[in-house]
User: Fold this.
Amino acid sequence: MEELLEWMDYIEDIRQEKKVRHKLKDIIVIVLFATLSNVDDWVEMEFFAHYHEEYLKKYIELKNGIPSHDTLCRVFGMLSPEVLQQLYQKWQELLNKDEGKALRKLICIDGKTMRSNKRKEGKPNHILTAWSREDGFSLGQKAVDEKSNEITAIPELLEKIRIKGQVVTIDAMGTQKEIAEKIRKKKGDYVLALKENQKTLYEDVRLFFCDEQEKEQLKKRGTYCKTIEKAHGQTEIREYYQTERIGWLSQKKEWEGLKSIGMEEKTIQREGKEKKEYRYYISSLKEDEELFSRAVRGHWSVESMHWHLDVTFKEDANTTLDKQAAENLNIIRKWCISILKMVEIFRPNLSMKKKRFVISMNPEEFLEQVLSF
Assistant:
C-alpha cells in the first residue's frame, strides 16, 4: 500500500491549483476505503471519513479536513477513468511482480448496464469490461451508451490491453470477423460464442455436432472431456467437444486464424427430469480440450463479477448521475472485488458481502488486515 500511495502523488490533477483544498490522493483513498467498508453512496463516504479521520491520517494528509460528499462526487466526475484504471493496474502489478507466467490466462469480455445512471430520457452508462479470470482483475474498460454499441467498442478496448499469448472469450454479440482479426493481430487467441446473429455459421456448426457418429469419433480421438457437479438439489453434466477438422466449413477463410469449432452440451438432472442445453463456439485454438473447456466455463467469471457489482455493492441502486463519476465508482468497486476475493478475514470462507460487513464493524482493525495482504 505504501508503494501505491507514493505512486498516487504523481497522478495528474487537472483542477485549478489555487482552488484545490483536498488532494486527489486523499479523495481516492477515502472512496476506496469506504467502499471496502460497506459504504455505497457519497453522503455515507463523508460520514465514514469523519468518523475514521484519525485512522485515515495514517495514510493521507487531510490538511483541510474531510471533503464534503459533493466534493467527493464532483472530483470523481473530473477524474479521468483511464487514470484511475492505471492506478488499479499499478496495484495489480505490485501484487504480481514475482509471479510466474506459465498459465495461459483467460480474458473475458462482457458488458453491464448501470441501470440507475440515467437522466429522464437519457441512456445509462453501459460498461464494457475485459476481466482476467485467473487474477480476478479488470484489465480495462470502456463506457458506451448501450449494449448494441459493444460491437464497435470491443476493438477499441482490445487496443488498450495486452492479450499476447492469452485467450479472449466473448459472448455471441462480439462474434464478428473484425474482432477475431483484431485479436489475432495482437497475437491473442479467441473462443467466440455462436448464436443466430451469425446464422449460416451457427447452423453449420450446430448440424455438425448433431451427428452422433461425429461426436463418438471425437470421444475416441480424445478431443472431448466431461465434468459432473452436484449442487442445489440437481446434477449438472457438462460435455465438451472440439475439432480442428473443419476443412468442410465454407466460411473458414473469412475468419482470421480460425482453427477449430466446439460445443458444450450441458445436461441438468433434477427430481427425475432431464434438460439439455447446447452452446457452440469458433476458436483460433488448436485441439486442446482442457484449454477449450476452461475457456468456455471460465467466461462465467465476468458474469459473476457483474453479479457482485449488483448484489454485493448495490451498483444498480446507486443514483450517481454524473456519468464519469459513475464510471469511476465502477472501477473502485471492481478494485474492491479484486481485493476481497484474495483475503480471508474474521473466519474462513466468508462471502464478499459478509467481508464488507465485517470490515464495517471495525475498519481500523480489518482494513489493516486487508491492506497488509
